[in-house]
Amino acid sequence: MVRHQSWHDLTPGQRRAVIVLGAAQFTLAGVAWLDLAMRPASEVTGRKGMWAAVIAVNFLGPLAYLRWGRRR
């Protein structure tokens, strides 16, 4: 049986890592969603709705949008 750890089971270093990685994820997604919202559809590769969903996928979604979703 798998035992899930609670927040209190983590070491201070692990807690710090979770906070830093979570903040980085939210910041990256926020930047990507803001860019998507402000950018005209003609400057987005594909549909904006699709990219909005892709951005929600961990670190890979925002990075994919920022790399391939925007037209130069």
Automatic annotation (TrEMBL):
It is a multi-pass membrane protein. Its main location: membrane. Signal peptide: none annotated. It is found in: Cell membrane. Keywords: Cell membrane, Membrane, Transmembrane, Transmembrane helix. The chain crosses the membrane at residues 18-38, 50-68. The keyword Magnesium does not apply. It holds the Pfam family PLDc_N. Residues 30-70 form the Cardiolipin synthase N-terminal domain. The keyword Cell membrane applies. InterPro entries: CLS_N. This is Low temperature requirement protein LtrA. It comes from Kutzneria viridogrisea. The lineage of its organism: Bacteria, Bacillati, Actinomycetota, Actinomycetes, Pseudonocardiales.
